[in-house]
Amino acid sequence: MATQQKEITDLVKRKYEHGFVTDIEQEFVPPGLDEDVIRLISQKKGEPEFLTEWRLKAYRHWLTMTEPEWAHVRYEPIDYQSISYYAAPKSQENAPKSLDEVDPKLLETYDKLGIPLHERARLAGVAVDAVFDSVSVATTFKEKLAEAGVIFCSFSDAVKSHPELVRKYLGTVVPYRDNFFAALNSATFSDGSFVYVPKGVRCPMELSTYFRINAANTGQFERTLIVADEGSHVSYLEGCTAPMRDENQLHAAVVELVALEGAEIKYSTVQNWYPGDENGVGGIYNFVTKRGECRGANSKISWTQVETGSAITWKYPSCVLRGENSVGEFYSVAVANNYQQADTGTKMLHIGANTRSTIISKGISAGHGQNAYRGLVRVLPTARDARNYTQCDSLLLGDKCGAHTFPYIESRQRSARVEHEATTSKISEDQLFYCRQRGLSEEDAVNMIVNGFCREVFKELPMEFAVEAQNLMNVTLEGAVG
Amino acid sequence: MLKIENLHVSVDERKILKGLDLSVNAGEVHAIMGPNGSGKSTLAQVLAGKDNYDVTRGRVVYRGEELLEMEPEERARQGVFLAFQYPTEIPGVNNAYLLKAAVNAQRDANGEPQVDAFEFMRLIRSKMELMNISKEFLNRSVNEGFSGGEKKRNEILQMLVLEPSLAILDETDSGLDVDALKIVAAGVNSLRSKDRAMVLVTHYERLLELIVPDHVHVLSDGRIVKSGDRELARELDARGYDWVQQEAARA
After folding, report:
1. Which of A176, A232, A377, A459 lies in the 20 to 30 Å Cα band around A303?
2. What ipTM did this prediction achieve?
3. In this structure, which topology does domain B2-250 adopt according to CATH?
4. A353 sits in which H/E element
């Protein structure tokens, strides 16, 4: 038994495949944060007055807040004055008009990451916005999407070309007062993606953003806003990687989704930030606020996330189910390996009548990893006949890791039905032996069993991502069989 | 094909096999019978390579190689197949996926190209029919929610697809009704050939009416105490095991 334990522990040494650094001349704002830095960022981006003011209000509010400590994670205090809040490749200074003008080094970086930005090389059905440190370097298939009336561009572009839309929706789902990191993001956000799908339009392709942190000593504070107008439909994917460094780097993003009547937004994430080395040195602090609001009746927001990276993950993609009959879904696989810590889950806020939510969470802990599911299901008195189903499964690989479940249920409507199921399991010796007796190596057997454990979530991912996610799980657990 | 010499096996210091000898040639079907606790399943598990069994003495030679030196997956790839008494459930893992992975692991070991999904389906279609297994069944999770009969038929399907040189069937008849038993026996019989050996571990004689063995051995207290042909199985069915054990004690 003991040797089996050790073998499984050995199994989870990982290699990080995206840890390279792009050597490119960059422009930095010196480390530190004050009102001048915020004005400088806003000015660099040529923002209208309302946005500069909004940032400053957020900053002033942030100063009154303290960092949250309730999450089941531990880290050294972050010195917010030692971070540079803006880093951009110099070649992006005078924003290139087309891909041909984009610095070849940047294109190379994305090629290396498997995200070629040249449209002819891309998967036909996926449009990409590539964000490098603080700025968006390219967005593909813009014209084709414009034909359908879909706006897909960097957040900075949206501020310039569609300020009225930005103004109408920014901060309406995640106000800058929401939490410490959301306030920090609101003050300092540099770029991100913007999507608007007009009434009745089914977005003709998958949209995706690929976030890359490159510069050292910087934070990435991107902001994404997706608005699906009445009866529209959009599927959006997000991927992320970063170089291997010994220092921790902060990534504090905000994502806001708005689904109007009858609209549907599917938001998928494959998060593979650098997780730190096997002794827990370095890695990204991924402190993210993601929330969607089903503002109209019969709307639907579905979050799917595969979280394999980051030293610490602190995120709770949530749904505010305001419209009657609206539907919220959360499908999650979170891996905590080596010294990774994950505190992730969701909030489902039932406001409208007959709103429904589903939560499927799969936590995998290995090495010294600590994995916590934290979920809140709140049913307000107005949410007559609301329903929720929650299932939390934890898989432990080895005996030094941990799995924790913190489900909070608050129902103030008697007709509501809220169900919660939770399991914790280990890969059994019998399962391993069975697979090996059929000729599979121990490593393949573990991968297969883990992928099987995640299947309910993986099947929610768009096809291209499902394959990537499976491969990522294999890399994560790659390494050694005793 | 298989030669077991003076095999001693313990589990947690408890001696289970105490000097077992057995020789199985290609083309032969051997039945190992015996009362509960005589070590039948231990023998099957040790041959397949399950750990937490301590082999304290003896050796097992399979096709000229020391079987006990090999990892379980190596044994499988070299043609040793165990049909489990209690096939384990693997939630979320597609039954067809596991089988295809098994086929490819074997092909890989033999330096043969991998099968793709179409070739795989072609490969298994007739075998599925023989085992009365539907396509829908293939897409369920491995053994999850299977009835006892479905689990055993699935084991035999895997065996038919992998075409082992040495098949060990551990209590494959247990928990089967008459119809399922017939299907399983038909599957096993279809695989009999002069290049292949089979070891049937069983408690009951009824399986041996359908899969007629060349040799029958009685395992008692960790050793083979009597060998014979199929008539021995019938005799055991009629008279029980006591007389064999008494005979062995006198010897």
Report:
1. A176
2. 0.96
3. Rossmann fold (3.40.50)
4. none
Taking alpha carbons only, the member of A285, A138, A300, A303 closest to residue A231 is A300
Q: Tell me whether residues B48 and A438 touch, CB distance under 8 A.
A: no
Token couple for A341: 């810590």
CA B91 – CA A425 distance, rounded (Å):
11
In this complex, the residue of A434, A454, A455 whose CB is nearest that of residue B88 is A434
The backbone torsions φ and ψ at residue B116, rounded to the nearest 5 degrees and listed phi first, read: -95, 180
In this structure, the dihedral spanned by the alpha carbons of residues B178, B181, B182 and B183, taken in order and rounded to 10 degrees, is 130
**CA angle A307–A312–A314, rounded 5-degree value:** 75
Look up residue B150 and give its amino acid: E
Please give the Cα distance from B209 to A266 (Å, whole number): 59
3-state secondary structure of A287: strand
Task: Count Cβ atoms below 10 Å from residue A228 Cβ, excluding itself.
Answer: 32
CA distances from A413 to A295, A351, A355, A421 (A): 20, 10, 12, 21
Contact residues for A418 (Cβ-Cβ < 8 A; gap 6+): A377, A379, A387, A388, A390, A409, A411
d(CA B45, CA A436): 13
Low-confidence ranges of chain A (pLDDT < 50): 1-13, 120-122, 124, 479-482
Query: Cα–Cα distance between B243 and B249 in angstroms, integer?
Result: 10
Q: Which residues have CB under 8 Å from B197's CB, separation 6+?
A: B1, B2, B24, B25, B26, B27, B28, B29, B30, B165, B166, B167
Taking alpha carbons only, the member of A341, A336, A332 closest to residue A361 is A332
The answer to whether residues B11 and B29 touch, using CB atoms and an 8 Å cutoff, is no
Q: What are phi and psi of B159, to 5 degrees?
A: -65, -45
Query: Taking Cα atoms as reference points, which of A411, A422, A418, A410 lies closest to residue A360?
Result: A422
Rounded to whole angstroms, the Cα distance separating B153 from B250 reads: 41
Q: Are A104 and A138 in contact (CB under 8 A)?
A: no
Q: What are the structure tokens assigned to A422, written together?
A: 């939770």
Residues of B in contact with A1 (CB under 8 A): 52
pLDDT digits (tens, 9 = 90+) for A212-266: 666 666 677 889 999 999 999 999 988 766 666 666 778 889 999 999 999 999 9
Q: How far is B208 from chain A (nearest CA, A)?
A: 25
Beta bridge partners of A347: A376
Query: Can you give the residue ranges of every domain in chain B?
Result: 2-250
Instruction: Name residue A63's amino acid.
Output: L
Tokens of A221: 């504070």
The token pair at A335 is 């891996």
| Residues in A lying within 8 Å of B, measured between beta carbons | 1, 3-4, 428-431, 433-442, 444, 448-449, 451-456
Q: What is the DSSP string of B205-224?
A: SHHHHHS--SEEEEEETTEE
**Interface contact A438-B71, CB threshold 8 A:** no
Question: Under DSSP, is residue A468 helix (H, G, I), strand (E, B) or coil?
Answer: helix
**How many cross-chain Cβ pairs, A to B, lie less than 8 Å apart?**
84
Judge: B101–A440 Cβ closer than 8 Å, yes or no: yes
**CB-CB neighbours of A351 under 10 Å:** 20
Task: List, for residues B56-70, the tens digit of each pLDDT value.
Answer: 999 999 999 999 999
Distance CA A188, CA A174 (A): 15
